[in-house]
Specification:
The protein is of the alpha+beta class and 228 residues long. Helices cover 31% and strands 24% of the residues. The strands form 4 sheets. Strands 5, 7, 8, 9, 10 and 11 form a 6-stranded mixed beta sheet that branches. It has a two-stranded antiparallel ribbon with strand order 1-2. Strands 3-4 form a two-stranded parallel ribbon.
Length: 228
Amino acid sequence: MRPLTDHTPKPLLQVGGKPLIVWHIERLARAGITDLVINHAHLGAQIENALGDGSRYGVHIRYSPEHPSALETAGGIAHALHLLGDEPFVVVNGDIYCDYDFAHLPARALALLVNHDAAHLVLINNPPHHPSGDFQLHDGRILPTDDRRLTTDDSKLTFSGIGVYKTALFSHIARNAKTPLAPLLHAQIALGKVSGEHHTGRWLDVGTLQRLEQLDNELRTSQNVGNV
C-alpha cells in the first residue's frame, strides 16, 4: 500500500468518502456494539486524532498502542486484555471491508459460553489472492483437515478477519510479546473448540492500491444509487 501508508495508517485510507475503519465502526454501532477498543502501531496517533472518543459515531473508543512495534494479531489482543473485560469479545481486522451483519455476533458470543468453545470465526469464499483458503467448515464447526466428518464438499474457506473470542485464549500470552493468531486457533480446532459460519456477501482485503481503488469505486457507485 505504499506510498499511501508512508504517511497514513491503512485503516484511515479513504473508501467511499470515509476512512475504511469508519465503515466498521458505523456497522458495529448499528448492531448495538458500542464499547470499542482499537489497538494500533504504525502512525497510530493519527487514528486516535481522527476518531477521538468515538462519540460522533455513537460509540465509546479506548486505545491500546503497541510499542515499539506491532505485536501481530494475538499479541495485540493480549496487550489489550486489560481493556476488554472477562466476557467474549469481537475482533475485526482494520484493513478489510465486509458487509457482514455484526448484529449476529452477540448470539455467537453467548454460544461460546454455552458450548464451552474458545472462538467463533466468520469465513468467506477464497479470494483470488488466497485460493487455498485457511479452514474447513462442517455443520457450523471448524475441523482439522484430517477429521473423518469432512466430505469432498467441505472445501477450505478463508478467514475473514472477523471473530469472537474468549479472553482465556490469550491470557497466557505475555504483554508486549509478538504472537500470531493462527497457531492458537489451530490448537483449539484440534480440541474441537472452534465454531464458524460462512459469509457469502461482500468482503475485500484492502491490501493493494488496485483493491483500494476498486473498493472506492464500488462504494461511490453504490452510494449514487442509494444502496449503501
